[in-house]
Amino acid sequence: MDLLGYGAFFLTTALIFSLVTLGLNLQWGLTGLFNVGLAGFVAIGAYTSALLTTPDDAARLGGFGLPILVGWLGAMVVGGIAAALTGMATLRLRSDYLAITTFGVAVVVQLVALNAQKLTGGPFGIGFIPRPFGGLAETPLLFNLSNLAVVSVVTLVAYLALEHLSRSPWGRVLKALREDERAAISLGKSARFYRVQAFAVGGAIMALAGALQAHFTGFIAPDNYLPILTFQVWVMLIVGGSGSNLGAVIGSILVWAIWAGSGTLTSILFPPEQQARAAALQIAAIGVMLCVILLIRPNGLFGDRPRRPRFSKRAKIAAGESSSGS
Amino acid sequence: MSLQFVVDGLLTGSMIGLGAIGVTLTYSILRFSNFAHGDFMAWGTYATLAVVSAIGATFGKVAPIAPLSFGWPLIVALVVGMAFTALLALLLDKVLFARLRSQGQAIIVVMASFGASMALRSLLEFTFTSRPTYFSRAIQIAMPVGFGIRITPDQIALLLLTAVLVLGVHLLMTRTQTGRSMQALSQNAALARIVGIDVASVVRVTWVIGGALACVAGVMIGILVQIRPFMGFDMLLPMFAAAILGGIGSIPGAVLGGLIIGLAEAGAVQLIGAEWRAAVSFIILMAVLFVRPIGLFGVRER
Predict the structure, then answer these.
(1) Tell me: the pLDDT tens digits for B81-134?
(2) Which domain holds residue B206?
(3) Cβ(A43)–Cβ(A210) under 8 Å?
(4) Do A99 and B33 touch (CB under 8 A)?
(5) DSSP letter string, B180-227
(6) Number of folded domains in chain B?
(7) Predicted TM-score (pTM) of this structure
(8) B244 within a domain of the structure (yes/no)
(9) Model pLDDT for residues A219-232, shown as the tens digit of each residue
(10) Closest to A291 (Cβ–Cβ): which among B103, B115, B130?
(11) What is the ipTM of this complex?
C-alpha cells in the first residue's frame, strides 16, 4: 500500500515536470527558442495561483480565496504575458539574447519572491494553498491517487492540445521557421510574431505546471525555483528528444526516476553531514550526462530533429505522400 | 548620499568588466554566449586559494607586503591560478565546445555550456562545500581620501591591476598580429580563413585571455568579498549585461559596461537596498535590448 502511495506521489511529481517539459518543447523543440529561465515562469505561475486562491492574509497582499480553477487560469494568463513580454524584447535579436534575457528573468523572479514580502511572503513563502481533494488528506493513498488523476488529466489535455497544435498550420509555420527561417519569411510569415506566440503559449504551460505543483504540495517558497529546476527540465527534454511531445513526457518520467533514485541512494550511502556534498555530486553527474547526450545522441530517445535535414525531409515527404495516396 | 558608492561601484565594475571581456570575446569570436564563464571565475579563485595554502604549508607564514592584506604567495598563486583557468577553458573547449561547434548549431553549444556550468559549480561545492572562505581574515583600515570617500590599500592595488590588465588586453587586440587576427575572425570568419588566419590558434588565445581574466576577477571578489562556489554564477548576469551594453566584441565597451553596471549597482544599494542589487543588471540589459541592442560600441550584425 505504501509503495502504491509512493508510486502515485512519484508519478504526480514526474507528470508535473513533464508538463513543464511540454512547454519547453513547444519553445525549443518546435520553435527553436532557448529558454534558460523557465524556473522563473514556473514560479510566476505558482505564486499567481497561490495569491488568487489562498484565504485572506493580513501580512501580505491578497489571499483572494478564489476557486482553484481560477487560480490556474490566472497563472496561465500571467505566465503567458510574462513570456510574451520577454519574447517581444528579444526575439528580433540573435537567439543568444533570448537565452541571456530568460536567465535574467529567472534571477529577477527569484529576487522578487525573496524580497517582496508583501507580495510573496519572502523567504518563508506562502502556505495554506488550497489543495484539490484536501478533504481526503486523512487517507494518504486516496489523496495521492486523486491528485495523480487530476495531474494526469491536465497533462493529457496539454499533450493532446500540443500534438494538435504541432500538426496544425500554426505548428507547421513554427517548424518551417526553425528549419529555414528565410524560406518561411519569404512565404509571408512574420517570424517574430509566430515566435512570440509560441514563447507565450510555452510560458503559460510552464506557469500552469507551477500552479499545479503549488496546489499539490500546498506550500511554496523561493527555494523551489532555483536554476537547478531549469536544468532538470532541460535534461528531461534532451533525454526524451527535443521536438517530440511523447519524448518530453517519457524523458521527464525517466530523468525524474533517475534523480529521485540517485537521491535516495546518496541518502543511504552518505552520512547526514555529507548529504549536501553528495547532492552536489549528483547535480554534477547530471550536468555531465547532459553534455554527453548532446555530444553522442543529440536527438535523445524520440527526437525528430534530423541530422541531415535535406535527406531525411525528402524521405519523410515521400513516405507521407505514399501513405496519404494509398 | 555619500560618494562612497563611487569607489564601491568602480570595484564591482572592475570585477564585472574583467569577466565581461571573456564573455564578449567568446561571443564575438566563437559566436556563443558561454554560461560556464562565471564558473571559470570560481574555479580560478579556488585554484588560487589552493596554491596559497600550499605555499603557506611549504614556507610557513609569510608576512603581507606593507599596507596590503596579502603577500607574495597570493601574487604567485594568482599567476598559477590564471594559467590553470586558461588550461581549464582550453580543456573544456577541446572536450565539449569544439566538437559541438563543428556540428554547426550555435545554440546547442550554449546549452552545453549551461550543462557544463552546473557540473563545474557542483564539483566545486562537492570538493570545498558551499561554506564561504577567505584569502585573509585580516581587517584593513580604510583611509579617508576626501569627499567622504574611504578606500583600503587592497582596493587601490586591485583598481590599478584592473587598469593595467585592461590596457594590456587592449594593446594586444589593437597592436599585435594575434589581436588583429582575432578582430578579423570576429568580423568575418569566412574571409579570415581565406586570408590564411590560423583559426585554431586564435580560438586558443581567446580562451586563454578569457580564462585568465576570469581568474583575476574571481580573485578580486575573493579578496574584497568572499569565496563561494556560486560566486561566479552570481556574476553571470552582470557580465552578460556589461558585454551587451558595451557592444559585443568591444573590449573597451565590455569594461565601460562593467563600470556602468557596477556604479549603478552601488548606487542602487544605497538608494533602494542591497537586496535588489541583482535586478539592476537585468533592468540595464532590458533597456539596452529595447533601445540600442548593438550596445555602446557595437557594430551591426552582418
Answers:
(1) 999 999 999 999 998 888 888 877 777 888 889 889 989 999 998 888 888 888
(2) 22-231
(3) yes
(4) yes
(5) HHHHHHHH-HHHHHHTT--HHHHHHHHHHHHHHHHHHHHHHHHHHS-B
(6) 1
(7) 0.87
(8) no
(9) 899 988 988 899 88
(10) B115
(11) 0.86
